[in-house]
């Protein structure tokens, strides 16, 4: 459904990708081959090669046509013990395999209510910068995903998103060789109804869509909102 619509109507200037679970990569690749939608994975191993049963390396993902790998999604951090340093190593592994890591950062509700949102984002970003360095950092995509807004139906407010994204851009100016090259996506209950407003916020360069991406027409509406928000 996505391919048909995107091929006919297009979304000029917007890069769209689907990040599918590992077992569906081959099937997705066959469907997407040569089309306008790019392919990504939802995770990647921090190890390039070796005996790590169950792990999927960046090279394997590249072989299956992936352009992107999400790293440090809050569910990976909270449920699978991925700490800030491991997220940095995964980002490095993705880059080494020629993939663009989509590095997720975001605060929990307790952290937001405790007034430490920007400090948490900085801590998570510092760990990535410590592994990548200023040059390689320019090759990532960042995604601000407040944990409390993911899958909850409750997106962050325009003000909250603006403050976090401005904070992340300021951090990039200090730590990244080419701070303007790094897109900052917002994720957390993005829907057709709120996409245009969220994409109008300064320093919001796109979205990382969960639930709404499973409904083709909703995802398409969000892609179009991103196209309409082009400067
Ligand atoms: O985690 C997300 C995308 O990775 C966001 O999920 P929702 O859009 O369902 O809140």
TrEMBL record:
What EC class is this? Answer: isomerase
Keyword Transmembrane attached: no
The main place the protein resides is: cytoplasm
| Gene Ontology CC terms, in alphabetical order | cytosol
A family per Pfam: TIM
Per UniProt, the keywords (alphabetical) are: Cytoplasm, Gluconeogenesis, Glycolysis, Isomerase, Signal
Which residues are recorded as binding substrate?
151, 189, 210-211
A GO molecular function assigned to this protein is: triose-phosphate isomerase activity
Q: In which pathway does it act?
A: Carbohydrate degradation; glycolysis; D-glyceraldehyde 3-phosphate from glycerone phosphate: step 1/1; Carbohydrate metabolism; erythritol degradation; Carbohydrate biosynthesis; gluconeogenesis
* GO annotation, biological process: gluconeogenesis; glyceraldehyde-3-phosphate biosynthetic process; glycerol catabolic process; glycolytic process
Question: Which residues of this protein are catalytic?
Answer: 73, 145
Q: Name the reaction it catalyses.
A: D-glyceraldehyde 3-phosphate = dihydroxyacetone phosphate
Location of the protein in the cell: Cytoplasm
Q: Looking at the record's lineage, which domain of life comes first?
A: Bacteria
What does the record give as EC number?
5.3.1.1
Q: How does it associate, per the subunit comment?
A: Homodimer.
Family as reported in the entry's similarity comment: Belongs to the triosephosphate isomerase family.
- Described function: Involved in the gluconeogenesis. Catalyzes stereospecifically the conversion of dihydroxyacetone phosphate (DHAP) to D-glyceraldehyde-3-phosphate (G3P).
Read off the NCBIfam families from this record.
Answer: tim
Supply the name of the protein.
Triosephosphate isomerase
Organism field: Pseudothauera nasutitermitis
Task: Give the gene symbol.
Answer: tpiA
């Amino acid at each position: 459904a996505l391919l048909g619509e995107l091929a006919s109507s297009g979304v000029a200037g917007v890069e769209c990708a689907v990040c599918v679970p590992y077992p569906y990569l081959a099937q997705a690749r066959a469907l997407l081959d040569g089309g306008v939608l790019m392919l990504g994975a939802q995770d990647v191993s921090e190890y390039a090669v070796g005996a790590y049963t169950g792990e999927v390396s960046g090279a394997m993902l590249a072989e299956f046509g992936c352009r992107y790998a999400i790293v440090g999604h809050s569910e990976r951090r909270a449920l699978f013990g991925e700490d800030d340093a491991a997220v940095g190593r995964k980002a490095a592994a993705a880059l080494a395999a020629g993939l663009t890591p989509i590095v997720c950062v975001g605060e929990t509700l307790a952290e937001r209510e405790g007034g430490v949102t920007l400090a948490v984002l900085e801590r998570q970003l510092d760990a990535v910068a410590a592994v990548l360095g200023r040059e390689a950092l320019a090759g990532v995509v960042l995604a601000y995903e407040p944990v409390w807004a993911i899958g909850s139906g409750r997106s962050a407010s325009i003000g909250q998103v603006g403050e976090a994204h401005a904070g992340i851009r300021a951090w990039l100016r200090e730590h990244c060789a080419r701070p303007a090259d790094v897109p900052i996506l917002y994720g957390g209950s993005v829907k057709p109804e709120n996409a245009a407003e969220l994409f109008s916020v300064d320093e919001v360069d796109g979205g990382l869509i969960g639930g709404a991406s499973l409904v083709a027409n909703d995802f398409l509406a969000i892609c179009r909102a991103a196209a309409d928000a082009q400067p």
